[in-house]
Specification:
The structure holds two protein chains of two kinds.
Chain A lengths: L2 E9 L4 H11 L4 E8 L3 E8 L2 H10 L4 E12 L4 H11 L4 E8 L5 E8 L2 H10 L3 E3 L1 H6 L1
Chain B lengths: L6 H4 L3 H22 L1 H10 L20 H6 L15 E4 L9 E4 L1 H17 L7 E4 L8 H12 L2 E3 L6 H10 L4 E4 L1 H13 L10 E5 L5 H11 L2 E8 L4 E7 L6 E3 L4 E6 L6 E2 L5 E7 L10 E7 L1 E2 L11 E2 L10 E3 L2 E3 L1 H10 L6 E8 L2 E9 L9 H19 L4 E5 L14 E3 L5
Parallel strand pairs in B: 3-4, 3-5, 5-6, 6-7, 18-21, 19-20
Antiparallel strand pairs in B: 1-2, 7-8, 8-9, 9-15, 10-11, 10-12, 12-13, 14-15, 16-17, 18-19
Helix pairs in contact in B: 2-3, 5-6, 8-9, 10-11
Classes of the chains: A alpha+beta, B alpha/beta.
Chain lengths: 143, 433
């Protein structure tokens, strides 16, 4: 019940992000979601793509440093308060949220939250018990 | 008008200087040969007997001494007097693994203080002056050296040591300091801060004696303008005693070497061949009056030129140029000696690749050291804070090794240029030489 996120090290220098997106487009890889976290000197780009195996492979080939992390993709209704309920559940269960970002899809009219927590299993159990739906990798590809 | 601390010595005839050097060199060679096994071995290995050295013309026969010898002989291997006769230890700046210690008897300290006194008097110092010593005190020779010199001259001495800029300026104003001794970059910083505080009309400085790091003529003009003083250069190294090995006079065209205590040579750093006056090469010193820690033909690694042209100040001591570079890869950053190998050691210990680059800049007359390190798959994490934690640990480890702060910049893999031959490890943007 997790999805694969690819994180890439980006030096803070003009053109590095462009170099990365060029690699993805040249290999026909489609991004579902993207988040960029940065400091003064470097950034960490996190992406959810349709083909994570291929993306990780071609990025490494191109000289990028990347890692694959399993994260949660939570489907929430695209209405006010949808995400609030989910974070309340995590908080009540003592699960720390390291970072999160969101994307929406046209197809299903849903919003998806990507959640990075320390303990995926505990988070899955808590969220499922509270009635939330978690998306798996295969489903994500079809979105 | 020119000021001397010891006119009869500083303006001695070349013949007199030569006579002193010949006599003292012979004595020193016997002294080290008789008392230091390390020297005895070095000289025996080269087939030189103490009797072979009869004047300074025989100096070339002696083996060179390098910092490596001083490290090999650490801690007491080059001490030339019984330990009970030595009264002081000083050490080179902030270097682990490359620590070098020097010893002094009371006689050695008196001579060192005299050398510094000459520098202070040459900068216009008299017993009426208030000398603010803002060099670090402790193992570093800057503070103790100028402090001792200031006492010899009879100046009212303010032993501030380095740091705490607000207090430095308050004392400078309240106590009416007239001569400032510190590193040139700290002088520049003090000047800036004084202007920011609007106190430029309340300081009474007339001169500054600045050393321990390279500084350009432009920087000299900046400091002179900012503090309203005449800025004098001073040179020295812990191994040879400390500041005051040579000092600038009012002509400001090079530093007079205290030739009654030190014989200077310029050599070709590659061949070791002695070069004539006026040629550029590595500066080599032989100390001829020290008891505890005399060094024969010590290679400073500083690239200089010696000139014997008559100086308008009346001193007859040979003049050395400001160092124009190094014959090794040592950097002096914020007055602290930094070797790339130290940085490499830290990186390897912390699991980083040994492919790195050191960037040195001078921003607002203050040195900035940056170490660029390539990111590795092992170090990488999807969490920025996890990377930042590792980066902070590296900064700490570098500080522990170097004694100064170095910014760490993580860069993309393979972004540091690989060279075919010798790697370009250092980019020094300071344009010091």
């Amino acid at each position: 019940m997790t999805v694969k996120q690819i994180s890439v090290f980006l030096e803070n220098r003009p053109g590095t992000l462009a170099a990365l997106t060029d690699v993805l487009s040249a290999n026909q890889i489609d991004m579902r979601a993207l988040s960029l976290s940065d400091t003064a000197d470097f950034g960490v780009l996190r992406i959810i793509v349709d083909d994570s195996y291929k993306a990780a492979f071609v990025l490494k080939e191109a000289g990028f440093i990347c890692s694959v992390t399993r994260v949660l993709a939570l489907a929430v209704s695209d209405t006010p308060g949808g995400f609030a309920k989910a974070v309340t559940v995590l908080g009540k269960n003592g699960i720390n949220l390291e970072y999160a970002y969101a994307f929406t899809t046209k197809k299903r009219g849903l919003a998806y939250m990507i959640l990075r927590v320390a303990d995926n299993d505990a988070a899955i159990a808590a969220l499922t018990a509270a009635g939330f739906t978690l998306t798996c990798q295969d489903e994500l590809v079809e979105l | 008008m020119e000021n001397y601390y010891q006119r009869e010595i500083e303006c001695a005839s070349p013949e007199q200087i030569r006579a002193w050097q010949d006599e003292r060199l012979v004595k020193t060679v016997h002294h080290v040969y008789d008392n230091v096994a390390y020297y005895r071995n070095l000289m025996d290995a080269k087939g030189v007997r103490p009797e072979d050295i009869r004047s300074r013309d025989d100096l070339y026969k002696l083996p060179f001494l390098t910092k490596d010898d001083l490290r090999d002989a650490y801690p007491y291997g080059l001490l030339a007097v019984p330990r009970a006769d030595a009264v002081r230890i000083q050490s080179t700046s902030g270097t682990t693994g490359r620590r070098v210690v020097a010893f002094y008897t009371q006689h050695d300290i008196d001579l060192w203080d005299e050398c510094c006194a000459r520098a202070i008097v040459a900068a216009g110092g008299t017993r009426e002056d208030v000398v603010q010593v803002s060099y670090g005190y402790g193992l570093f020779t800057g503070g103790p050296g100028l402090n001792g010199g200031s006492h010899k001259v009879g100046c009212l001495t303010l032993p501030m040591s380095s740091g705490n800029t607000q207090r430095q300026i308050q004392f400078m104003v309240d106590l009416g300091a007239t001569i400032l001794c510190c590193t040139p970059s700290y002088a520049a910083y003090l000047g800036e801060t004084i202007h920011e505080m609007g106190l430029q009309d309340q300081i009474q400085l007339k001169a500054g004696i600045f050393g321990a790091e390279a500084w350009s003529q432009e920087m000299r003009r900046d400091i002179e303008k900012s503090l309203g003083i005449k800025a004098y250069d001073i040179y020295g190294l812990t191994e040879i005693s400390g500041p005051g090995v040579s000092f600038e006079c009012s002509e400001q065209t090079g530093m007079h070497i205290n030739e009654d205590h030190f014989i200077a040579e310029i050599i070709d750093p590659k061949t070791g061949e002695v070069l004539p006056d006026g040629e550029k090469g590595e500066l080599v010193f032989t100390s001829i009056t020290k008891e505890a820690f005399p060094l024969l033909r010590y290679r400073t690694r500083d690239i200089c030129v010696l000139t014997r042209e008559k100086c308008s100040c009346g001193r007859t001591f040979v003049k050395m140029s400001k160092p124009m570079g190094r014959s090794d890869d040592m950097l002096i950053v914020k007055g602290v000696n930094v070797f790339p190998s130290q940085i490499e050691t830290v990186l390897i210990n912390k699991g980083y690749p040994a492919n790195y680059q050191i960037i040195v800049d001078r921003v607002n007359n203050s040195d900035r050291l940056e170490v660029q390190v390539e990111m590795t798959p092992e170090m990488f994490s999807d969490s920025v804070s996890a990377i930042a934690t590792q980066e902070a640990a590296l900064v700490e480890a570098l500080k522990a090794m170097l004694g100064i702060y170095a910014k760490v910049k993580l860069v993309a893999p393979k972004s540091i240029t690989r060279s075919e031959g010798k790697a370009v490890r250092i980019i020094d943007n300071r344009k010091l030489y």
